[in-house]
Amino acid sequence: MDKPLIGIVMGSDSDVERLKGAFDVLKELEVPFEVTIASAHRTPKDVANYAKTANDRGIKVIIAAAGLSAALPGVLAAHTTLPVIGLPLEVGPLKGMDALLAMAQMPPGIPVATVGIGQAVNAALLAVQILSLQDSSCSKKTTQYREKASKKVSTARDTLTELPKAPPEAFLG
Ligand SMILES: Nc1c(C(=O)O)ncn1[C@@H]1O[C@H](COP(=O)(O)O)[C@@H](O)[C@H]1O
């Protein structure tokens, strides 16, 4: 297996299921990744060390996923110059709004590229797009993924048999 290029850090083992979409996309696109659990609140030294060693180990992008008061992505970002993608998870009474705001509203100087609540697939795709800056195969993989998604839409359109649907020429540029 190739060396991991994407590091995925979750705040807790209770988050694993919510990351499934990201794991599936990266497996489908055959982009090597590694997964770990570390918490800025519970294991702060591990978070700092992970971020500090990531670049030298060959990691190019970090995805940090957490629910509740999510300091994790910001703390990782504080300890590395690698891009950090924040994935807020729908956990607890505020259903991810707390995590979203904590990730998106970083103080100037330490950005976290935050995707929507629970948008694990987008976090993975964004990571692959960042990799494509250096690796054209990742760009091709992104294009192929989009073509597949686009076919799904046109197939769904064809199933609109009971409704007055727009004619095919409506989509000819
Ligand atoms: N937000 C954070 C951080 C952190 O930001 O460092 N560490 C754990 N957590 C989150 O706490 C939630 C509950 O965790 P537990 O289920 O372990 O109590 C999880 O969604 C985790 O990501």
Give a quick summary of the entry.
The protein has 173 residues and is of the alpha/beta class. The protein is built from six helices and five strands.
Tell me, what's the shape? globular
Estimate the strand proportion.
Answer: 5-15%
The proportion of residues forming helix, as a percent range, comes to 40-55%
N-to-C span: 43 Å
Largest sheet: 5 strands, parallel
Topology pattern, helix = H, strand = E:
EHEHEHEHEHH
What is the rounded Rg? 18 Å
- The tally of beta strands, per DSSP, is 5
Catalytic activity: 5-carboxyamino-1-(5-phospho-D-ribosyl)imidazole + H(+) = 5-amino-1-(5-phospho-D-ribosyl)imidazole-4-carboxylate
Pathway: Purine metabolism; IMP biosynthesis via de novo pathway; 5-amino-1-(5-phospho-D-ribosyl)imidazole-4-carboxylate from 5-amino-1-(5-phospho-D-ribosyl)imidazole (N5-CAIR route): step 2/2
Family: Belongs to the AIR carboxylase family. Class I subfamily.
Protein name: N5-carboxyaminoimidazole ribonucleotide mutase
